[in-house]
Amino acid sequence: MSYEQASEIVRAFYQSADWSWVGVDDREIVENDKLFVFSVLPRKVLINRDEHGLVLMGTVTVVHKTDGRLERVHAGAFFTRESNRRDRARWGKATTRRPNPNPRLIVQEPT
Predict the structure, then answer these.
(1) pLDDT tens digits, residue range 3-23?
(2) Does pTM top 0.85 for this prediction?
(3) What DSSP string runs through 31-93?
């Protein structure tokens, strides 16, 4: 599964009416050998850069590379050393990050 395919799965899930207040921050591609990891934040934070609107969700959205399954899981499963040791069999090796060459989200710097 490619990053683009995984991204479309995430976008389709979050375009439902119940999730219309959030957006996918795709400026970085975050992945490991088993998953793509997506940061989904309130639109108020992404577009307006409104720090007061930030809701600490504590979860990330993942898409499994083998079958395209989407899950929302605790972010600590990916970004702490302890969780990487403990959950490596389930979640895969440590994540890597790289800039997305074609992000849909473009955030204007304040002028």
Answers:
(1) 999 999 998 998 876 777 788
(2) no
(3) E-SSEEEEEEEEHHHHHH--GGG-----EEEEEETTT--EEEEETHHHHSHHHHHHHHHHH-S
